[in-house]
């Protein structure tokens, strides 16, 4: 029985609005001990603005690996984890992934690629081995048992599509390409552009290196369970709601999640805020004909029980209303949250990453994610 969301996109990062005026950035190095990404203020609060960095000349496609778009992919991973060494032209990788997304005849591949990036990243747990996620020893979904998890049914379509790109760029890790694919899927569907940092490493095998399926949120999760799952990943209520809003694209599939072929809102191929609008409407009915997979429905539209929680919980609902009223705010905050999700566990080296974080701290802030 599938316990997972069958998420078509649940993850996020913010290109937040704001002016970059008055922010100066100077290049420097530091000999201080590197800090984990999830220990840095940028990631503890994740309440920062990214657009001002673009105004400062920051190239979102060549960050933090200190090698530019044609340099090596990044640092060597932990023992037992492969780290690509061949030079990679990341701008060409971006173009190749975009070509794959555009070739999808019904434009449905983008939502599945986004779901792949979410499911690969959302297994992170820094307190319990295997750590999971996509940064060090990532892309374990290539192997059993993770490839066969109920939650991951249907994701082989995205993995196979992106394998063509990886074959043309042997120095790129699967984990990096999956994450960049997720970012570009959001952009392809009309969402925000998410700055990409490469350097993730792939696990050499599966088995004991695969994280537990139980780390992914369940379709019938309660408010308490959602907060536990997303809290493990370092998210507050705000980040949680922003990420789940990615249900605005794609469909449920009976052969994957066990739910009938339905969509969350009226524009399943557009990364808009209509999911939040639909969630607040009054015409939903509870359908428990399938006792194992009850849900809320209205004609061809669906809300999972875990979606419904966002409407009913006293703390979640104001966030739903805010995102329903302002798509730009949601886009911005989704972008920040998704980037955080796909970078959990990263060790910040000296140089660019810390400089950028400091610049972000000086810009307009939004609600903590």
| Shape descriptor | globular
- Helical content, roughly? 25-40%
DSSP summary: helix tally: 13
Number of strands: 7
Order of helices and strands: EHHHHHHHHEEHEEEHHHEH
* Through-space gap between termini: 32 Å
Strand order across the biggest sheet?
A: 4-5-6
Mean pLDDT: 76
Secondary-structure map:
Layout: E1 35-36, H1 41-45, H2 51-55, H3 90-102, H4 109-121, H5 156-168, H6 174-188, H7 223-232, H8 237-244, E2 251-252, E3 262-263, H9 274-280, E4 285-287, E5 295-298, E6 301-303, H10 305-312, H11 316-325, H12 327-341, E7 347-348, H13 352-361
Helix pairs in contact: 3-5, 3-6, 4-5, 4-6, 5-6, 8-11, 8-12, 9-11, 10-11, 11-12
Short overview:
This protein has 369 residues and is mainly alpha-helical.
């Amino acid at each position: 029985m599938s316990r997972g969301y069958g998420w078509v996109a649940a993850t996020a990062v913010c290109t937040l609005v704001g002016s970059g005026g008055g922010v100066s950035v100077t290049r420097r190095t530091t000999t201080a001990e590197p800090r984990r990404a999830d220990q840095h203020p940028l990631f503890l609060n994740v309440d920062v603005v990214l657009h001002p960095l673009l105004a400062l000349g920051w190239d979102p496609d060549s960050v933090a690996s200190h090698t530019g778009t044609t340099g090596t992919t990044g640092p060597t991973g932990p023992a037992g984890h492969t780290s690509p060494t061949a030079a990679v032209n990341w701008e060409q990788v971006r173009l190749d992934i975009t070509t794959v997304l555009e070739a999808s005849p019904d434009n449905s591949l983008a939502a599945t690629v986004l779901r792949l990036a979410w499911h690969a990243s959302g297994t992170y747990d820094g307190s319990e081995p295997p750590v999971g996620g996509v940064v060090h020893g990532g892309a374990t979904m290539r192997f059993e048992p993770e490839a066969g998890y109920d939650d991951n049914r249907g994701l082989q379509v995205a993995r196979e599509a992106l394998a063509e790109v990886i074959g043309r760029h042997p120095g790129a890790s699967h984990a990096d390409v999956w994450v960049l694919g997720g970012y570009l899927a959001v952009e392809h569907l009309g969402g925000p552009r998410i700055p990409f940092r490469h350097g993730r490493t792939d696990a050499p095998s599966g088995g004991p290196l695969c994280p537990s399926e139980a780390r992914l949120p369940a379709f019938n999760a309660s408010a308490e369970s959602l907060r536990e799952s997303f809290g493990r990943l370092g998210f507050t209520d705000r980040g949680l709601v922003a990420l789940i809003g990615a249900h605005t694209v794609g469909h449920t599939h009976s052969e994957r999640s066990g739910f009938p072929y339905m969509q969350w809102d009226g524009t399943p191929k557009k990364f808009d805020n209509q999911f939040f609008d639909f969630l607040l409407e009054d015409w939903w009915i509870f359908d428990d004909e399938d006792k194992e997979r009850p849900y809320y429905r209205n004609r061809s539209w669906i809300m999972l029980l875990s979606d419904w929680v966002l409407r009913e919980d006293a703390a979640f609902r104001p966030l739903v209303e805010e995102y329903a009223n302002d798509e730009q705010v949601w886009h911005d905050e989704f972008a920040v949250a998704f980037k955080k999700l796909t970078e959990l566990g990263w060790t910040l080296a000296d140089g660019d990453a810390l400089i950028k974080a400091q610049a972000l701290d000086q810009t307009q802030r939004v609600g903590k994610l």
